[in-house]
Amino acid sequence: MAFPEQAINHQRSTWSPYDNNGGTCVAIAGANYCVIAADTRMSTGYSILTRDYSKICKLADKCVLASSGFQADVKALQKNLSARHLTYQHQHNKQMSCPAMAQLLSNTLYYKRFFPYYAFNVLGGLDSEGKGCVFTYDAVGSYERAGYGAQGSGSTLMMPVLDNQLKSPSPLLLPAKDSATPLTENEAVDLVKDIFASAAERDIYTGDGLEIVVINAEGIRRDTMGLRRD
Questions:
Q1: Per the domain annotation, does 101 fall within a domain?
Q2: pLDDT tens, 206-217?
Q3: CATH code at 161?
Q4: Which helix (H) or strand (E) holds 37?
Q5: 48 and 90 in contact (C-beta within 8 Å)?
Q6: Which end of the chain is more exposed for a tag (fewer CB within 10 A), N or C?
Q7: Where are the alpha helices (DSSP H) in 95-209?
């Protein structure tokens, strides 16, 4: 029996190549250090996929990337950057500086602008002078150097607090002032712990654990802290 055309129920596909796995990343640059932190919860919708997932990737000895968004795209992006950095090391016999890696990340994201990596990145480390630097990005490679930055599901909760505590002068003011924050290394770590503990109370995609990476002249140090697990 043939059904009339109007009786056929056409359903539009709701499949998407993207997902948002949540999570929050923060970075703070100081005079001679950089603190990068991210929570360890990975979610989809109202489900927690894992409570112990690292969103922080070491790209070079003095350069670390923290990313939230779609973690499959994040992994592909990290693999791409690592391969390009390896090529750079073979050609130049040295590692990339953090500002050079920042430009490479921008170019890599912009190259994919028509089918973007669904990844929201904060890049932190030390520049060639040993000063802390933080670079924040959108999904298609637009970036700026700042004294601090936040990305991810809890960033709208954290940025007002960071602005209140660390707001640097406008880059349009002359003479230009250093973007590094005035906090000491320990003060920056304490501030990061406080804002993550607060954000975890309000954002269901941020929680479980906190991974903190501190970069200074001595190298890279990692620390962890528990967050609420519900």
A1: yes
A2: 999 999 999 999
A3: 3.60.20.10
A4: strand 33-39
A5: no
A6: N
A7: 98-111, 155-166, 185-202
